[in-house]
Amino acid sequence: MQENSNDSARDDRDTLFMLSGVALIVFGAGLILSNPIARRYLSKFGIGNLAQSTLPDLDRYLKMRSM
């Protein structure tokens, strides 16, 4: 019983660390994208075009994976 409780607490802590890391990444990306200089550089690279061209491939991958 004691081992099961420790494993559950460890899993909860690992999940909390993972979610907090994801939140920090999203927050950091928002800070970077709020900077007008960063937006200008990203628009030169065509990041939006890259995302639009990737979506059909992602959709195809998810369909194949669900088979």
Description:
The chain is mostly helical and 67 residues long. The protein has 2 domains: 1-34; 36-67, no CATH class. Helix content is 93%, strand content 0%. The chain contains 3 helices and no strands. The protein is flat.
Notable traits:
67 residues, mainly alpha, 2 domains, 3 helices, 0% strand
Write a short abstract of this structure.
This protein has 67 residues and is mostly helical. It has 3 helices and no strands.
Topology at a glance:
Layout: H1 2-33, H2 36-45, H3 47-66
Would you count the extended β strands for me?
A: 0
What class, by secondary structure content? mainly alpha
- Radius of gyration, CA atoms, in whole angstroms: 19 Å
Element-level helix/strand string: HHH
How many helices does DSSP assign? Answer: 3
Mean pLDDT: 80
Q: Provide the domain count.
A: 2
For the largest beta-sheet, the strand count, sense and barrel status come to: none
How would you sum up the global shape?
A: flat
Q: What oligomerization state is this entry in?
A: single chain
